[in-house]
Amino acid sequence: MNYWWRRLALSLGAVFALVVVYAWLYQLGMAAFEGETKTFAQALQIVIESLTTAGFGGDAGWDSTAMNLFVVGMNLTGVLLVFLALPLLVVPLFQQALQDRPPESTDLTDHVVICGYSPRSDVLADELEAANIPYVFVDDDPELVVDLTNDGTEAIYGELDQEETLRAANAGEAKSLVTDVDDETNAVVILTARELSSDLTIVSVVEDEDVASYHRYAGADETVRPRRVLGQSLATKATTTLSAELRDTIELSEDLSVTELLVQDDSDLVGRTVAESGIRDRMGITVIGAWFNGEFVPVPGPDHRIDGNTILLVAGRRDDLTELKARTVSTLERRPENVIVGGYGVVGRTAVETLAGNGVSTTVVDLADQPGVDITGSITDEDVLETAGADEARSVLLTVNDDATTIYAALVLKQVAPDIEIIARANETENIPKLYRAGAEYVLSLSTVTGRMLASVLIEDEEILTPETQFELVRTTAPQIAGQSLGEVDLRARTGCTVVAVERDGELLTDLGPEFVVNADDVLIVAGDDDAINRFVALAC
């Protein structure tokens, strides 16, 4: 919008300058060719009458050819200005004014109201779209709302803590409301929404764990704490790679567990293909998928080669998975089990607590000199990293609240300590591939954790079992494919998902061949990455 105001100001300035020049020339021309002396005011009147083609009241009937031609030129200039102003200035200004006016209400019903938009909201939006649940964003940034609307996303503008804004969002007819701004604003939104409707399901995203009880007291039905879950998950990944013990596992039954395993450099599996590893044939473990250099491959073929930093998503008996875990750990001499934690916010602090609970020593680096910080400085500073002992540490957790800093820190770490294991937090999912290319071994985004946790609360008949991992494991019904066999549906080819197990009449079925027929009351446990799960939900649910 500022561009158009600048354009208008420049145009008006140019017209003003033209009028002044014409008035001066008119004065000179009347004196030289007509022998009459005109004041500047009189000249100005004639020029304006000419340019606006309004007719002449002060002067008419010039005797000299030069003055007649000059007046004709002024008339033509006026006409030209009118024709230029309409298409180049007036019409675009009206169009821009209409486009830049953000919508302030919605007609949606039985929808989800999401108060506050951030890039991490995109994961939740994808989950809701896959489940065919309508939603509307409410934000107090008019330009952001216009951008969202132009992109085809339902959004309205309004002050988040005002009742009229929630009424405009049709919160009284909504199925649920999510507030994800900051802890104080969230509390006000909860109070306002609860006053508007006593039946509305309200979910709040909590930054500081201590305020969760206040949000519940204000009227929130659920509170989610993604930063704490993210910190715990990153720390657990570090403790998992420090030992052969199997952790971070989803127990589906006594005979079936699902987990993801990071293959370390110099471990027994590195350099082998899936077939050569014997994971399927000898150990009886199902490889659901794998991340190769950050790219998820559903059901990798027997010729896929396992490299260092490959992440395997596998399902099988816990004893077999424990044996496989031992084969993913480096066979070289164990390095000191010290972990450097870069960043001491909510995520970093939670990670340190989790590591300490598992007996792992830490060295904390943060810009702020505060209790719990061992070294004050930037995690991207080589001198700071050397002081922290990066060349001797086993792993580093990058938990800072800025993706650009995290990416740069990964690049620096690979120069300072090439063998260190980098486990990183990302705020936005689009930066995950960049972190892998920068040298990270494991990356988990706050957007993914937040979106999945919220989706698990908001979407009925779909339970997300793994909000804190790189893959998604959901428990859901699949009415659209009832009566069809897995071979007929061909879910792997069409969606990239794997049906790990089926719950039927209180029994967990794991021997699922292509001839297995899905019943209407079956609950399927499905694994895949986010996009694959969304494709599955759109197809089968």
From TrEMBL:
Keyword terms of this UniProt record: Membrane, Transmembrane, Transmembrane helix
Segments forming domain RCK N-terminal: 109-225, 336-444
Domain RCK C-terminal residues, every copy: 247-330, 457-541
InterPro entries, A to Z: NAD(P)-bd_dom_sf, RCK_C, RCK_C_sf, RCK_N, Trk_Ktr_HKT_K-transport
PROSITE patterns with a match to the protein in the record: RCK_C, RCK_N
A Gene Ontology molecular function term of the record: monoatomic cation transmembrane transporter activity
TM segment ranges: 39-57, 69-94
Alphabetized Gene3D superfamilies for the sequence: 1.10.287.70, NAD(P)-binding Rossmann-like Domain, Regulator of K+ conductance, C-terminal domain
GO biological process, any: potassium ion transport
Cell cycle is among the record's keywords: no
Coiled-coil residues: none
Short name of one Pfam family: TrkA_N
Protein name listed in UniProt: TrkA-N domain-containing protein
Organism of derivation: Haloterrigena salina JCM 13891
